[in-house]
TrEMBL record:
GO-annotated biological processes: negative regulation of DNA-templated transcription
Keywords assigned by UniProt, alphabetized: ATP-binding, DNA-binding, Nucleotide-binding, Repressor, Transcription, Transcription regulation
Organism: Candidatus Lloydbacteria bacterium RIFCSPHIGHO2_02_FULL_54_17
ATP-cone domain residues: 49-149
Protein name from the UniProt record: ATP-cone domain-containing protein
GO MF, any single term: DNA binding
InterPro entries: ATP-cone_dom (IPR005144), NrdR-like_N (IPR055173), RNR_NrdR-like (IPR003796)
Pfam families named among the record's database cross-references: ATP-cone, Zn_ribbon_NrdR
């Protein structure tokens, strides 16, 4: 791995452990050239995953789309003055929920997942974590409402 500070090609792992969630491996690395220390996170790749759309087409799994939906649902609602009301760190919450959803996908051992399955997984995680965000997520489309039984 290249050093992010000097670009040298050789680094060594000084320490390594599994994260609390068990979804990734944290590594402390040091550059053999400039001696600076940095951290990396290793997570399983979901490049193999195919999403079967409602129209029957297959597409590659795109985690950024789920993250965007989660972020929109978790982000602030409109305040009384038309501004945004702070609901905490929506990006951190969305990332945490995305990791949980991806763990469930990996645990299912499926290589193809339907959009309905993804909507259900997102709905389950939001419902158990942030009920207002769950309802905002469902409100984005009638298809989601139907899939989530609303």
């Amino acid at each position: 791995m290249r050093c992010p500070f000097c670009g040298h090609k050789k680094t060594e792992v000084a320490n390594s452990r599994t994260t609390k969630s068990g979804t990734s491996v944290w590594r402390r690395r040091s550059c053999l050239s400039c001696k600076k220390v940095f951290s990396t996170y290793e997570t399983p790749s979901l490049d193999f995953l195919v999403v079967k759309k409602r129209n029957g087409k297959n597409t590659r799994y795109a985690p950024h789309k789920i993250f965007a939906s989660l972020f929109d649902a978790c982000a602030a609602g409109k305040g009384q003055n038309g501004g945004m009301r702070d609901r905490g760190d929506a990006a951190a919450t969305a990332q945490m929920l995305l990791e949980r959803i991806e763990q469930k996908i990996l645990a299912s051992r499926k290589s193809v997942v339907s959009t309905k399955d993804l909507i259900r997984l997102v709905g389950e995680e939001l419902e158990s974590t942030d009920l207002p965000a769950f309802y905002r997520y469902a409100a984005f489309s009638p298809h989601k409402q139907e899939t989530l039984g609303l």
